Amino acid sequence: xxxxxxxxxxxxxxxxxxxxxxxxxxxxxxxxxxxxxxxxxxxxxxxxxxxxxxxxxxxxxxxxxxxxxxxxxxxxxxxxxxxxxxxxxxxxxxxxxxxxxxxxxxxxxxxxxxxxxxxxxxxxxxxxxxxxxxxxxxxxxxxxxxxxxxxxxxxxxxxxxxxxxxxxxxxxxxxxxxxxxxxxxxxxxxxxxxxxxxxxxxxxxxxxxxxxxxxxxxxxxxxxxxxxxxxxxxxxxxxxxxxxxxxxxxxxxxxxxxxxxxxxxxxxxxxxxxxxxxxxxxxxxxxxxxxxxxxxxxxxxxxxx
Length: 305
Prior knowledge:
This is glutamine--tRNA ligase. GO terms for molecular function: ATP binding; glutamine-tRNA ligase activity. Belongs to the class-I aminoacyl-tRNA synthetase family. It holds the Pfam family tRNA-synt_1c_C. This protein has 7 helices and 14 strands. A hairpin with a 5-residue loop joins strand 12 and strand 13. The protein has 305 residues and is of the alpha/beta class. The protein folds into 3 domains: 12-96, no CATH class; 100-177, Glutamyl-tRNA Synthetase, domain 2, CATH 1.10.1160.10; 187-304, CATH 2.40.240.10. A 5-stranded mixed sheet has the order 11-8-14-13-12, with no helix packed on it. The termini are far apart.
């Protein structure tokens, strides 16, 4: 077998176990088979099977606990049988159910097929539920560990976790660690007509959704002046019940600022393109941002009690 005098697949070396056992994994499993594939050079053409090699490797590497999923539970008898015959140290074997996440491929064998067939962009493709893919997607190790701890360990053979549960832990982690800011990608000019042109008010904006009102470092300043910009998609010429943006004659609340009411729309020469919007702000509806948060918290406390 070693010298390759036998054709591939024509012979195997089996372990002499127990053909009378109720466990099929004790029926003289294959230890070595012939395979003409480069491994550690081309000198050897015999390869050990998984059932023969993995328990020996665990023992030689002083593994304390060999963790595997439930489909390997029937292999435990063979695992301990071979180590006993060879008089080797026996690690402790634990089996548990597989972690499946809805709408995701979790099998290493299937993931390997996708990667080797180049159906995805490597093991770190952000569409894959691999650690490398999650890292490339921006998911932190803390969020992953919290997700896993929250699920716990089970031996139930049907354990499928909804993806939304992982996304919840990701959001909770980012709410504590990722500072927020504001940006306008498609700006639409808004002129506050009842605000002096030289006046600029610095308003408090939260870096994190759950920012403490007592922590000054959790806030940053947002300037509010006569000219501000909103997203083009946040304005419509015709209002509707299911639309919450700005429209002619309608009032909306600017984030961290005041309510504004659209009083006039300036159009281009084609009478279709919106050049700018004129609006008036209601200064009486805006309190100090931190006072407003404190008031809401106090109200919440009264409702609870």
